[in-house]
Amino acid sequence: MIKTISAEETYIIRQFVLREGVDLPFKFDGDFNEETIHLGAFKNEKLVGIASLMKTESNLLSFKNQYQLRGMATINEVRGLGFGSKIIDEVILQLKTMNIECVWCNAREIALDFYIKKGFEIIGNPFTVNQIGKHFVMYKKIPN
Ligand SMILES: CC(C)(COP(=O)(O)OP(=O)(O)OC[C@H]1O[C@@H](n2cnc3c(N)ncnc32)[C@H](O)[C@@H]1OP(=O)(O)O)[C@@H](O)C(=O)NCCC(=O)NCCS
């Protein structure tokens, strides 16, 4: 089940999954903005996956209403079980009801195929994030 959660609830998975061995903040600018949405995937009432949506524009994209997907992660124990996929489906559904035209993210190279399977495309050139590695800007147009 996918539910809206608080910024604070995302922190534990951000720390353990996205910041393991990485000395970068797990609290993001924009976490508490009014437009920001945090989603959690639950398995037997345990939080197993997270994603945050922020109203940020990419200058690589010309869509008027854009949201950025950030902090997308599932815990090790549930990898490959479809929780990540369900989170993206909910992201698309929520943004559709908000009349948002496009969702984009800075995708780690290891997650590239996951996003491609969910209909995202690469735009622009890859870039490197210190301590994490190669990233690609990826986006998906929200169907009407
Ligand atoms: C990327 C991530 C969120 C995917 O979550 P998940 O719960 O494992 O994804 P799902 O089980 O819903 O997988 C959906 C599909 O993508 C595939 N997939 C998932 N992760 C993949 C990966 N890293 N590389 C290639 N394919 C992947 C699955 O095999 C599945 O394919 P299928 O539909 O053909 O069966 C998860 O692996 C993760 O948290 N990784 C570490 C953190 C990270 O890199 N986050 C992304 C930051 S940009």
From TrEMBL:
Residues 1-143 form the N-acetyltransferase domain. It comes from the Bacteria. GO terms for molecular function: acyltransferase activity, transferring groups other than amino-acyl groups. InterPro entries: Acyl_CoA_acyltransferase, GNAT_dom. Gene3D superfamilies: 3.40.630.30. This is N-acetyltransferase domain-containing protein.
